[in-house]
Design a protein that fits this description.
heterodimer; A: alpha/beta; 28% strand; globular; B: alpha/beta; 6 helices
Chain lengths: 264, 213
């Protein structure tokens, strides 16, 4: 596939990612060793006011316990946050998706249940539209330019090749890919650019690069070399090492289109 | 101010529309009952998902004729995203389907390639600037009164609503080199392709203006 420029006339999206356990915003390293950061919606509101283009809430232990606790948190967030919200973790059926959309989510991100039952991707995109169906992919490197799909927040191997899985997911109706590098996640060492590139080369739908953003400059490679349409940020924001406004300025100075937003 | 009726036909994030209106100080009623809609003075038709399913849902709830009737009685009607597309005559998403026929035009897929041969990523997801299509298009009076050309809004869609006459398209955005209708209007029937309830403060301004029309 040639001539795919990830941004074209479209603006790069800057997304704040909130990993949730129970009622808390947490953060791990390589999806493990989870540490409590604080109340999720305090952080969510801060990022919204800084001009985050979207928010992602991910219930990290939902698959483990077979439930998703996020409904109340999301419903609460919609009182004063007016940007798109994607929710993931433990969504197993069209009905689960319906409930979380009714609670105030705009999109659902699905990993574990989609791997177990790929037709769920098709059913959700039929019912709510593919713009609603985000395929969440946790990728772990196995050799040069080869990554394996993991499920259950990076705990379980599947033996499935990441690029093959993304192609299949898009064919089934996924409208967006949330691509998390398990190796880079929480390490602050930058995105896995070759992973991002391998996926964007094969995907007609937008790809969100997630995992490893250590400095605002890390997003430049994810877009220029990786071809990402959006970047997800967690650690870098939660610990205040940077903020959305600085990240936007970095993107703007590099010549990327971003949403115009005036942070007061 | 009168309350606003938000039509519920089973899909989408209705809560955010309600919360956006509440944030503007307006009470919203989410309903699928024809009697609530008949008596409304301002209606929002939200929606995400596919055109065909949406029309089938409206049909099975007995709402197609009701919406057409109240819209022609000159109440204020705002269609959002798919709700905007439903205002047109027809769409070819998953087979040709008739729409509400309130604004002349048709819904077609965003082209996969632009005229330079560059592939467009579909869906179009993200924040795009509103552009005034002609210098003389009047934003000073109406729903875009407080909006400036260049303000960015959140779009997420694979199809676009092409009106039959340029005068119905009062704002567009650019996706690559593709001009996409962003706000359409005929009399008091308005559609916006982006989500005002998901476009931060500038989006809420649009909801506020709709409430004050």
């Amino acid at each position: 596939m040639t001539n795919v420029s990830s941004l074209l006339g479209n603006n790069l999206r800057l997304i704040a990612r909130l990993d949730i356990k129970g009622e808390n915003l947490i953060k791990g390293i390589q999806l493990e060793g989870l540490r409590i950061i604080g109340p999720p919606n305090e952080y969510a509101l801060k990022y919204y006011l800084q001009g985050a283009d979207e928010l992602i809430y991910m219930d990290c232990v939902a698959s483990l316990y077979g439930r998703n606790h996020l409904s109340n948190i999301i419903t609460d967030a919609t009182k004063n946050i007016f940007v798109p919200i994607t929710v993931g973790g433990g969504i197993r059926s069209v009905n689960d998706a319906f409930k979380i959309l009714r609670a105030g989510a705009d999109k659902v991100a699905i990993n574990t249940a989609a791997v177990a039952n790929p037709s769920l991707i098709e059913n959700i995109s039929r019912e709510f539209g593919s713009q609603c169906m985000v395929l969440s992919v946790e990728a772990k490197k196995v050799s040069v330019n080869k990554w394996e799909v993991y499920t259950d927040n990076g705990r379980e191997k599947t033996g499935i090749d990441v690029v093959d899985w993304v192609k299949k997911g898009v064919d089934l109706g996924a409208g967006e890919i949330l691509l998390t590098s398990v190796d880079k996640e929480g390490t602050r060492k930058g995105f896995d650019i070759s992973l991002v590139k391998s996926v964007t080369d094969q995907s007609m739908v937008p790809v969100i690069a997630s995992g490893g953003m250590g400095t605002p400059e890390d997003l430049l490679k994810a877009v220029n070399e990786g071809g990402a349409s959006a970047v997800a940020m967690a650690d870098i924001l939660h610990y205040g090492r940077s903020n959305i406004n600085d990240v936007r300025n970095t993107a703007m100075n590099a010549g990327f289109g971003v949403r115009e937003y005036f942070f007061e | 101010m009168n309350e606003i009726v938000v039509i519920d036909y089973g899909v989408g994030n209705l809560l955010s529309v309600k919360r956006g209106l509440e944030y503007c100080g307006v009470k919203a009623i989410i309903t699928s009952k024809p009697e609530d809609i008949v008596n409304a003075t301002k209606i929002i038709l939200p929606g995400v998902g596919a055109f065909k399913n949406a029309m089938q849902s409206l049909e099975s709830l007995g709402l197609v004729k009701v919406i057409q009737e109240v819209a022609n009685r000159k109440i204020d009607l705002l269609g959002i995203c798919l709700g905007m597309q439903l205002l047109l005559d027809e769409s070819n998403e998953f087979g040709l389907t008739k729409g509400l026929g309130l604004i002349p035009g048709r819904v077609v897929a965003i082209p996969l390639k632009n005229n330079e041969g560059i592939i467009n990523k579909i869906p179009h997801i993200g924040w795009s600037k509103l552009i005034n299509p002609e210098e003389n298009s009047d934003w000073n009076d109406g729903i875009l009164k407080t909006i400036e050309s260049g303000d960015s809004f959140y779009f997420i869609h694979s199809y676009m609503a092409l009106t039959n006459n340029n005068k119905y398209t009062i704002a567009h955005c650019l996706y690559g080199s593709e001009k996409i209708p962003a706000v359409i209007q005929r009399n008091r029937i308005i559609g916006c392709q982006f989500h005002p309830e998901k476009s931060g403060e500038v989006g809420l301004k649009i909801l506020r203006e709709f409430c004050e029309l």
